[in-house]
Write a structure and sequence with these properties.
Layout lengths: L1 H11 L13 H14 L8 E5 L5 H14 L6 E5 L4 H5 L2 H7 L23 H8 L5 H11 L8 H26 L1
Parallel strand pairs: 1-2
Helix pairs in contact: 1-7, 2-3, 5-7
């Protein structure tokens, strides 16, 4: 996820300063949320909590992560869930998948009912590995981040992430502009 975001965000949100803090799995993430949010003192900072749902209930996971943010005294943190995994976002944009891996036949992935709703694919990483032999998660994330678009993806969880980041970017620029005028 970190590799993907570090490659993707600067393409579409130039000038947006961000820091990705990786965690060793969901338990490490959940344990650290209240502590990190409570202790982060830099003014004007916004937080995005992003994780795969890994077969869980997206709404329940989001609710739980939001409650952890509130425990950390942050009611402004943006919580987003990649349903089911980050790789579902790749299936959501077959043209980007084909371009990233130089395999034109992958453009047809979007024509089948199987991938029409990429967020419902049970194990997207296994599907990607089947479609792209030799696929590696880290290098694949880097490649896909270079080719995904903001609005060409059928993944609802990807679109929710983009809309949330756009809202946060606008809020940050407004608060920066207000600070400069004072």
């Amino acid at each position: 996820m970190k590799v993907f975001l570090e490659e993707f965000l600067p393409r579409f949100f130039p000038g947006l300063e961000f820091l990705c803090i990786p965690h060793e799995g969901r338990h490490d993430l959940e344990k650290s949320i209240p502590r990190k949010l409570r202790s982060w003192r830099e003014p004007g900072v916004r937080f995005l909590i992003l994780r795969d749902n890994d077969g869980g209930d997206c709404r329940a996971i989001k609710e739980h992560l939001t409650s952890l943010c509130l425990e950390g005294r942050r009611d402004d943190a943006l919580v987003r869930i990649a349903c089911q995994e980050l790789e579902a976002w790749y299936l959501g944009e077959p043209d980007a998948l084909a371009t990233a891996f130089s395999r034109d036949e992958l453009r047809a992935v979007g024509n089948g009912a199987r991938y029409r709703d990429p967020d419902s694919v049970v194990k997207p990483s296994a599907e990607i590995e089947r479609l792209v032999p030799g696929f590696q998660k880290v290098s694949g994330a880097r490649q896909m981040a270079r080719h995904l678009s903001l609005d060409g993806n059928r993944s609802r969880s990807f679109q929710a992430l983009i809309r949330g980041i756009e809202r946060e970017a606008v809020a940050i620029s407004r608060s920066s502009a207000c600070g400069e005028e004072s």
